Please model this.
Amino acid sequence: MWSFAKLVFLFILATIFHWAFASIFSYWGLSVNMLLAFAAAFCAILKPAFGYPAAFICGLFLDFFGTKLFGNNAFSFTVCACIVYGLSERFDFDAFFPQIVTVFGLVLLAGVLNSLLFLWFTSAVQWPGFWSLFGGAWISALFAPAVFWVVRRTLGKASVCRQV
Amino acid sequence: MLPRKKNFKKNITPSLRRRFWLPLGFLLLSFLLMILPLEGVVSSVKAVLAYVFIPQVRLAHGTAKYAENVHQTVRELLDTHRENRVLKQEIEMTKLLASQAESILDENGRLTEILRLNPAKRWKGVWAKVAYREPTQWNTVIIDKGSREGIRERSAVISMEAGKEGLAGVVVEVTENTSKVLLVRDEDFSAAVYLERGQEEGLLVGNGPRPVRIKYIPLLTQVEKGDKVFTASTSSIFPAGILVGEVSEVREDESFQTALTIHVEPLVHSASVKEVFVILENEGAS
Model:
């Protein structure tokens, strides 16, 4: 129960960070995706039974703001969760470098995947622009170690975490 | 071969099975949400999610705003920034009223004389700040005012750009404290407009990242690059006479040459919208 409360707290924290970062960096036209960095941290730390729903709900939160398509972010976040669980067999997510590289790659992938899903389902182009996505991915990746630290620190050795 | 198969089946542990079925289940669920029409089940799901997410959004927005206020308080100690902002807003409001009055005078004179329409009245509305801009949805913004301030769906939204007021978009969703605004460039946006030069009316439609277009302008219309485009009185949503932008290109090679396709550069750029004025009483358009 206590672990679940911590997860809810982290989710609220993630949305606050995402909101604040998206608002600040949109001034420079950058597509920062802090929620995806949090989703990656959840998947790197939590058991799949908790990591996948967490990533899905994070995606659903972003879908809530959309007007034309619903579920695309939930889809791309779930794909990203699959990738993180796949990579966790080979990468040590306690180190900064894998965290930065993974979040950078995932933000780019999610951006491209979202655009393709938009094109497929609505025939509309929803491309934030290469530099916007690239710059946003860099910013998200630079803050990834802090995000991973916060998630790990909050959850500690809770029962929802994976045994490393 | 058979014993191998048996071993393989034995090797699939419950945790492996979970790792396969769990993501597949979520992927199928999200795929299902994407293929369902937005009006039916999805809107019900969204309504349910609103109960969970809206307080969270409010909390996130409030926290971000609080952090901003702390920052401002520090600045206020230096006695500059806030005063400057308030003054700027007042100047913008004054400019808006002045240009509005000018536009209304011109419009009134012409419409009363030629079309015998009732004179447009002053716009009443509220100023709102852009509270959130989803990075992948450049043409949709969420503003920090909602139904509590009297904003309703289909309210016209204008903004100041380079000292002029221009059409910014339309309200598409309203909650108690926030509203979602569809900006001019969005593909779902459309408005009745007229060209400054010959007063021909057409339909302005957003086109995503591509230029905004005006459709249904007769082929022989005199129009040149730089001509101003205003909202027309025939629009049921927008008050007449709001500057939309300038003609950036005129094409004759589309629509089987029965009408011109005119590209318009909107005055208000999607990326630079920070503060908007939501028109609450559009008496002039009725």
Remarks:
- Chain A has a mean pLDDT of 86.
- The radius of gyration of chain A is 15 Å.
